[in-house]
Amino acid sequence: MQEQFRAHTDIAEGGLLERLTPPKWHPYFRLMRLDRPIGTWLLLLPGWWSIALSASFWQGLWLFSLFGIGAVIMRGAGCVVNDIVDREFDREVERTRDRPLASGAISLSQASLFLAGLLAAGLLILLCLNHFAVVLGALSLLLVFPYPLMKRITYWPQAWLGLTFNWGALLGWAAVTGGLDLAPILLYAGGIFWTLGYDTIYAHQDKDDDLSIGVKSTALRFGEATSWWLLRFYGGALGIIWLAGLLSGMKLIFTAVLMLGGLQLLWQIYTVKIDDPADCLSKFKSNRYFGWIVLAAILLERAL
Length: 304
Fold this sequence. Notes:
With 304 residues, the protein is mainly α. Helix content is 74%, strand content 1%.
């Protein structure tokens, strides 16, 4: 039996994780979005890029593992924060009304206790890093907690998500070197442009509901001009990531493989159907391929 998505929601049912665990755990898995790992990949990959640019093999292997666990935990914590703040809005949006808090499967107090546990686990992971990285990682919470409020006050909540989701580009470098440099700052900036692109596509799924309940997004801001904005965002992301690689010693192989990532981004821009929620979700999820291509470009350059 394969996991299935109901027509009006992106919540997966019947996946392997749910088949192997007690039913009472399932609302917590859904609260963390463990049934939808794409968000974990998008949070994790900028950190992996930064580690791959700066670490030796064995140090990189250790940090890849640590960041992988940390990304699952902190993405889950971010989703809990988002659902606590947005629980009333989620009941009004077709795609989100079955989320555990919005549907009543989990109470607010249960979600709050669960969040505390996730943050404690995240802290344990963070404490495995050097002092500078610990402080830098803790500062990311200043971005995580306000994020759900951004859609209420600006048409650019995707920009705030970019600031939040690409923090790993800074943290990965800091975990290796104990400091920062221009290369990870550029990698962070490139990731922000990338997020502006893919999350604009994602936001087009909910634009009708968002308009009716009064929340904002770049999808509503750009409308039919979305493709032109995607070209700007993705073009900026590709160029800035390339420059970050050059500053880190990347050369021809990195550039050649990165161009394949550029083709993947162009495919998204010219084929996305912004009025088709299923296609928007599919294009959004395809960004994991771009992230893997960037990582492959770095690792191949270093290996060869």
